Amino acid sequence: MTARTEARLGWLTWVLSVVLVTSAVVMLSLAHESLHTIAGNSYFDTGLIALTFPLVGALIVSRRPRHLVGWLFCAAGLGNALGAASSAWSVYATERGLPGGNFAAWLDSMTFVPSLSTIIFLLLLFPNGRLPAPRWRWVARAA
Fold this sequence. Notes:
Blueprint: H1 3-30, H2 35-40, H3 42-63, H4 68-96, H5 101-125, H6 137-142
Helix pairs in contact: 1-3, 1-4, 3-4, 4-5
């Protein structure tokens, strides 16, 4: 894969995250969730992570396509965006009696673990993409 294609793929993760978070906000507003509920719940935090992490990742990947930290930023943000969209669909589908609400709730609960583990890897591998010392390998394996 060329460096240009990898940079485009990084920006694609950001665009996909923006689309998923926007659809989550629309679905929550159609499900009659008030703005106070959206801001007070974990939706706001998840949406903020889902929009900022892929942006930072895309900026890193566009400059250094092989840098692991940039790809971890993209993956963590995309995982949170998927969690936000599936959470919003579960609320919307349950309220309207549409199919897939239970699956979306399950998917929302399952996206938490990979997103958290990518953030742990991000903290371990920041700033150069390598572990600080060999003794940190057990933390990486546990994550």
